[in-house]
Specification:
Elements lengths: L1 E4 L5 H20 L1 H11 L2 H8 L4 E7 L4 E10 L4 E9 L8 H11 L6 E7 L3 H9 L3 E8 L5 E8 L2
Parallel strand pairs: 4-5
Antiparallel strand pairs: 1-2, 2-3, 3-4, 5-7, 6-7
Helix pairs in contact: 1-2
Keywords: Acyltransferase, Ribonucleoprotein, Ribosomal protein, Transferase
GO molecular function: acyltransferase activity, transferring groups other than amino-acyl groups
Protein name: Ribosomal protein S18 acetylase RimI-like enzyme
């Protein structure tokens, strides 16, 4: 497995990965219908395509040469001092193999001027919260509700 920058040719596979991962993670929380709505909007080809050219960002995939097993998207803010990890997903069948940690390491290394990495995670997604804790993240703001009435936990980690 290697980590590389995502390209146009990866978008269909990323879209499929996001749909599979979202259903496995969020159907029990939001219901299948709502997950279909979210993935249709948030993970459309147009939405994914904008990530390819988003300024001050990294759009990465974990690739074994045959298939994409994971993806991450992050962008810097505050003049490059803070990195917001917007997405990090690994196919359910590929989880617990170090792929998420590899993606996270590459995101961190992609922003050498940053001193902090921050993310939001669904408050009920205990597996993700556990993963991020194991990677050294701490909860900075407990459950807050977004405009979509989703409860999220804000987590962060200082970067060396």
């Amino acid at each position: 497995m290697f980590i590389r920058t995502a390209g146009e040719r990866d978008l269909e596979a990323i879209k499929a990965l996001l749909a599979e991962t979202w259903h496995a993670t969020y159907d029990a929380i939001y219901g299948r219908k709502r997950v279909n709505e979210i993935t249709a909007e948030w993970h459309s080809m147009a939405a994914l395509r904008t990530r390819l050219t988003h300024p001050h960002s990294e759009f990465l995939v974990a690739d074994d040469g045959k298939a994409i097993a994971g993806m991450a998207f992050a962008a810097s803010v505050d003049e490059g001092r803070v990195v917001w990890l917007r997405q990090l997903y690994v196919l359910p069948a590929q989880q617990r193999r170090g792929i998420g940690a590899m993606l996270l390491d590459e995101v961190s290394e992609s922003f050498p001027e940053a001193s902090l990495i921050r993310l939001e995670v669904e408050a009920e997604n205990l597996n993700a919260i556990g993963f991020y804790r194991a990677q050294g993240f701490i909860v900075s703001d407990a459950a807050e509700t977004t405009q979509d009435e989703v409860s999220v936990v804000v987590m962060e980690k200082a970067l060396a």
